[in-house]
Design goal:
This protein has helices at 2-16, 22-37, 41-58, 64-79, 83-100, 106-121, 125-128, 132-145. Helix 2 (22-37) packs antiparallel against helix 3 and helix 4 packs antiparallel against helix 5 (83-100). It is globular and about 40 Å long. By secondary structure, it is mostly helical.
Amino acid sequence: EAVVVMEQVVKLREQTLAEDDDSLLASQHVLARAYQVIGQVQKAVTIMEHVVEVNKHSLVEDHPFLLASQHVLAMAYQANGQVQEAIKLLEHVVKINEQTLAEDNPHRLESQNQLATVRRAIGQAQEVGHWSTTAKIREQTLANHHQD
């Protein structure tokens, strides 16, 4: 039911807003995530490819929404069996995040973790070792932020 509502929201916004409108892109982003959750991965890929493409033309390379959209697209690629595309996109996101975010930034850690997870899943264990420090930093960061 939530997917049906999001489809209606996106349809209405597509009729009334510019293609690069933030609220339209955010709605498309949410719809793509919903499609992925219910197993309609190809629909998620198609929407996220569009969102990323539009964002590339209107946002700077290190804009958080562009990076988040690329991350979600990479996850959709992975779910769709497009593992090499997922790795390539995650490597890009990780590279930008390493240049712009602090070592213990949650977004940076999540993108590094996701890349390591994809690589591990296809047997690229030798590539995963580089990210072992990510797990340590993530544990320290979570411990520091969730002290009772």
